[in-house]
Amino acid sequence: MSLITPQARQWIRAGLRLRCSVVAICVGLAQSQTPVRPQFEVTSIIWSQVLGQLENGETRATFTALAVTDPVHAGKQLREVRADLVTSDWKSVVNVGEVEIPVLKKHADWLAKVAKDYPKSTDAFSDRGERDDPTPPLYFEYRGAGKDAILYLGGPGLRTLQFTGAPPSEIAAIFARAMKVLQVH
Questions:
Q1: How confident is the model at residue 146 (pLDDT cuts 50, 70, 90)?
Q2: CA 114, CA 50: separation in Å to the nearest integer?
Q3: In which order are the strands placed within the sheet that holds 150-154?
Q4: Are 165 and 149 in contact (CB under 8 A)?
Q5: Number of DSSP helices (H) and strands (E) in the chain, helices first
Q6: What pTM does this model have?
Q7: pLDDT over threshold 90, residue 160
Q8: How far is CA 58 from CA 4, 33, 81, 89, 141, in A?
Q9: pLDDT band at 42 (very low <50, low <70, confident <90, very high)
Q10: What is the C-alpha to C-alpha distance for residues 59 and 38, in angstroms, rounded to an integer?
Q11: 8 Å CB contact between 16 and 42
Q12: In which band, very low, low, confident or very high, does the pLDDT at 23 lie, cut at 50, 70 and 90?
């Protein structure tokens, strides 16, 4: 038994991207016997600002702070950081909700501090957020020392991307900018 309504299936086939909150509505509609038309507009971007980018050859992670209209609550907005992850043969998008940003900043700050405190260590330092509930959508790991060090970026169900020579302070700065930008808007 499918929990997605025929209408939602049509929207998905048409290429509309449904957010989790919208999918929850669709699941509720699938269980209803009375046909109900969802009362929402397609989300639109209210504002956006690029926060930074990590790059290594054809591997790229671009971070953008943005606010979109909330499809469930009229007049409200959802604020988040969008991470566009790209390799030569794969791409994905991760949306980090506003409440998850301080958690990821804390993980990135810790990793940056460890890398600074142990600059010659070739050990792997990781804070994947597995102890957090819920698990954050991204995790960071750092291995090596100097110009040969590698910053890893991944998450549940994602490929792990490698950025050689990128210090953890870069990802920490990106999430620090995210918090400032979201405070201002």
A1: confident
A2: 27
A3: 124-127, 139-143, 150-154, 161-164
A4: yes
A5: 4, 8
A6: 0.75
A7: yes
A8: 36, 49, 22, 9, 20
A9: low
A10: 39
A11: yes
A12: very low
Query: C-alpha angle 37/40/46, rounded to 5°?
Result: 165
Locate 54 and state its tokens.
């990590």
47-85 per-position pLDDT tens digit: 999 999 999 999 999 999 999 988 888 888 899 999 999
pLDDT of res. 130: 65
Count, residues in the chain:
185
In DSSP terms, which residues pair with 163 in a beta bridge?
Answer: 151
Domains of the chain: 1-39 (no CATH), 45-184 (3.30.2450)
CA-based nearest residue to 55, from 161, 137, 176: 161
Mean pLDDT, rounded, of the chain:
81
d(CA 15, CA 13): 5
Lowest mean pLDDT among 48-62, 100-114, 125-139: 125-139
For the chain, list the strands marked E by DSSP.
45-56, 59-69, 77-87, 90-97, 124-127, 139-143, 150-154, 161-164
Residue with tokens 């020392």: 145
The whole-angstrom distance between residue 10's C-alpha and the CA centroid of its chain comes to 26
Read off the amino acid at residue 13. R
Which are the contacts of 12, defined by CB distance < 8 A and separation ≥ 6? 4, 18
